[in-house]
Specification:
two-stranded antiparallel ribbon, mainly alpha, 3 helices, about 110 residues, Histone, subunit A
Length: about 110
């Protein structure tokens, strides 16, 4: 049996538990989950987590810190996954979408 692991500085390895990965897949709606499916998702999650961690480390170093904090992780996720929050607000007062604008100019009724 091969245990999925991810590397940490210094050559230490910590496994991602396949049971936890299986729970994630079941929570998403699967009735049955193969071991190979759990291993494949675990491998992908390792890659994504490592990329987020590298980006977060860069943010903490840029801020002059040695400690990566939750805000570094959040910012790394936003940058990597282009998650900049909700888009522009729309309101419905006729055909076609219109942007909500509080600036000067005529307003639709």
């Amino acid at each position: 049996m091969t245990i999925t692991t991810y590397p940490i500085k210094g050559g230490v390895y910590i496994p991602l538990p396949l049971a936890s990965i299986e729970k994630l897949i079941r929570k998403a709606g699967a009735h049955r989950v193969s071991k190979s499916a759990s291993k494949e998702l675990a491998s992908h999650l390792e890659d994504v987590a490592a990329e987020v961690a590298r980006e977060a480390i860069a943010f903490s170093e840029h801020a002059g810190r040695k400690t990566v904090n939750a805000n570094d992780i959040k910012l790394a996720k936003r940058v990597l996954f282009h998650d900049y929050g909700p888009g522009p607000k729309f309101h419905d007062d006729g055909p076609g979408p219109k942007f909500h604008d509080d600036g000067p100019g005529p307003k639709s009724k």
